Amino acid sequence: MQAEKTLFEQQGFKCQKCGHYDPLAKKLELNKEHKTVLCSVCNAFAPSAVEDFENYLSEKIDSNILETFRKFTKPKKEDSLKKGMMASVTKGNHVSRPAYGYDMVSGELIPAENSDQVRQIFESFKKGLSLNAISRNFGISVNGIKKILKNFTYIGKVKFDNQILQGNHQPILSSELFNEVQQRFEKLKKSK
Fold first, then answer.
1. Which of 13, 87, 115, 139 makes an SS bond possible with 111, Cβ 3.0 to 4.6 Å?
2. Which segments of the chain does DSSP mark as H helices, in order?
3. Burial annotation 37-51 (CB, 10 A radius, 16+ → b, else e)
4. Residues 53-108: tens digit of each pLDDT
């Protein structure tokens, strides 16, 4: 941390590529690999190889051109939030709102009173009922039914950032029923 502070003091609060000046260093980052102060936009595109980085740095760009990008770059806080959520998911914890058929109690997913409806929805689809018919029978939109039928939560899994991991919660369905429903979805997709 002291080394970072020293580099900011030596190089100032100005991006070494585009010249963006930020006395509060809110939009400046330290490129640790090359020990250079860059704005968040320039740092995002910085190459890692030393010779490429030197060429990249020598090609100056006007700070004003990047202003729009600088306004809409993700703050670091979101990155650390995502890392924290991923760490929680890796431990099997659920990090989003509970799926239909579950309640969140003291930070844990537990089957809700309507969890039997989830089983009925899956059984109905497995038996050949259309999404529209199931939607009418349960008073849930067709898109809502699709989300339920594709949700890994019901077999005890958690999904985050396109990764599916084992969860800590009690499954509502068997893996067999879930897989049969996914196979029917695939057959429907292929027949279109």
1. 115
2. 2-11, 40-45, 50-58, 67-71, 76-90, 115-126, 131-138, 142-149, 175-191
3. bbbbbbbeebeeeee
4. 888 888 888 877 787 776 766 555 556 667 777 777 677 677 778 899 999 898 88
Look at 176 and 161; give whichever has higher pLDDT.
176
Q: List the one residue out of 63, 58, 50 whose CA is nearest residue 14.
A: 63
Provide long-range contacts, Cβ within 8 A and 24+ apart, for 36-44: 36/7, 36/11, 37/7, 37/8, 37/11, 37/12, 37/13, 39/15, 39/63, 39/66, 39/70, 40/70, 40/73, 41/66, 41/69, 41/70, 41/73, 42/15, 42/16, 42/17, 42/18, 42/66, 44/73
CA-CA distance, 183 to 46, in Å (whole number)? Answer: 44
Beta bridge partners of 147: none
- pTM reported for the whole predicted model: 0.57
Instruction: Map out the domains of the chain with their CATH numbers.
Output: 2-73 (no CATH), 79-191 (3.90.1750.20)
Q: Which amino acid is at 158?
A: V
Side chain identity at residue 133, one-letter code: A
